[in-house]
Amino acid sequence: MKQKEFNQKFAETIRSTNESHNLLSLIKDSPKLKAERAIEVYQEDYQARLSEALKNTYRATFSLIGDDDFTILTRDYIANFPSPFLDLDDYGNHMSEFLSNHFLGKDYVFLAELADYEWNFREVFHMQQEQGLNVIELQNLLKSDSGSFVLVPSIRLLHYSFLISNLYALKDVSDDSDDEENFYYEESQFILMIKSGVLVKTHILSKNQWEIMKKFQAPTTFSNAIQNVTATVTPGEIQNLFRILGTEQILLNSNQ
Amino acid sequence: MKKATSDKLANIFGLGLRSPHYAYLETKPKVFAGWFEVISENYFRSSGKPRKVLEALRADYPISCHGVSLSIAAYDEFDSFYLADLKKFFNEIDPFIVSDHLCFTGVKGNNLHNLLPFAYNQENLSHLSARIDFVQNYFGRKFGFENLSAYFDYKNSTMSEWDFINELTKITDCNLLLDLNNIFVNSYNHEFACDDYLKVIPMNRVQEIHMAGFSEREGFYFDTHSNPLYPEIIELYKKVLSVKKNIPVLYEWDEDIPEFAILENQILTVASIWEKTP
Predict the structure, then answer these.
(1) Whole-structure pTM value
(2) Which numeric CATH code is attached to A129-256?
(3) Which stretches does DSSP call E strand in B90-224?
(4) Which residues of chain A neighbour B100 with C-beta distances below 8 Å?
(5) Pairing of strands A199-205, B144-146
(6) For chain B, is the Cβ count within 10 Å smaller at the N or the C terminus?
């Protein structure tokens, strides 16, 4: 068999976690390791590496469902999604969607959303931060009422049915704490996630603030953004939103 | 073609940069290591903290870039986006050494994230020679290729690993990254003499040495990079030193990574062996 064909069969065998017999005629037993066991070593290593990568990315998911369920989840995910990535850390991009149809996603109703949050966190973590307008620049443009603005790319605007950022924070709570058991999470949440230096920061927004912020995903003026928001926007919400936009410097002047 | 510039190193003893040590290294401690090695794929597409730590570190230390995804022995075309991003990364970091492994890592559309062996025969010698020529021309740099630990041998291998490597370096003029741990693990599992290996390897092409700790599993040795230095690896190092002394040497620790001081102790041990060897 040519090496090219062997490589293909080897990849299939490693993924399948069984049926190594089609390769056994091609490789030798070594004095310390039978050929069949050698294939298993590679199969086990494949599972272990991808599981570890998923555990690194989905630390809160792991922490909330525990070792046994996380092992089931990663086993099922790995069986469904071969990695096309050259960097192992990129593996796991379908987890949220996968959990929506997995029994664990039904047992823990918040899990698909938590996985979505964790994947977004990972993406923002690796992004290049782009600096937008500071408070003074923003004020000057607003005074002249000529500014049209757009959000920098290194942010995410997220909306969940559960208190996901609070659930995410539980990954850092020790096992013997009773915070987890008494935790109330059945409330929707609007989140702004931003790259800030080497960190990822989040701001919890009101629904109105989130809707206004969404409009800045395409270039628009401040007055246009505030119009047509579902509920009445309070001055406090506007003030707070302006403070976030200015201090975090996440709006660009789209006229430039 | 840009050559490795390891002869300009003031201190040949290096360590692998790993994320558990970021916080410590950010305090800019005085460390014994003279250079650091990074896994290229962990940094080349990130603008996150890992990249910031690397940028800060390279101001003080020479950097070596060691890849795990070139898949030089694969039979699929190279990923052009990967090559372009890696080239950009090398231009930004300006490593004194670039390297990857003599292996394939998967097939098109499915990376197995492992360093997988191939048969040592004429078919693969021709194939790898052409691929290495392409890579060295593309990057305009000499690459070092690392020998790997393999848990099986192919029935259609027609030459030994060391003869294959020797031939490959002659044809392609590439360099070698000699992993002593891998030689020892293979020699134990496949029962050959390390001396047979070392006497054929062209030491003038060894641009870097890797040392690490293996583990034992069901009667065979497993290349886990999870332990301190073993006497068997020290013995191999002494044999290399008797042929060529000033080769940059790195200690790798990738599983159950200990605090930095323990890692640093490994390279201090290596340095003391180096000093005592005439």
Answers:
(1) 0.90
(2) 3.90.930.70
(3) 97-101, 104-107, 110-116, 144-146, 153-154, 175-179, 206-211, 215-217, 220-222
(4) none
(5) unpaired
(6) C
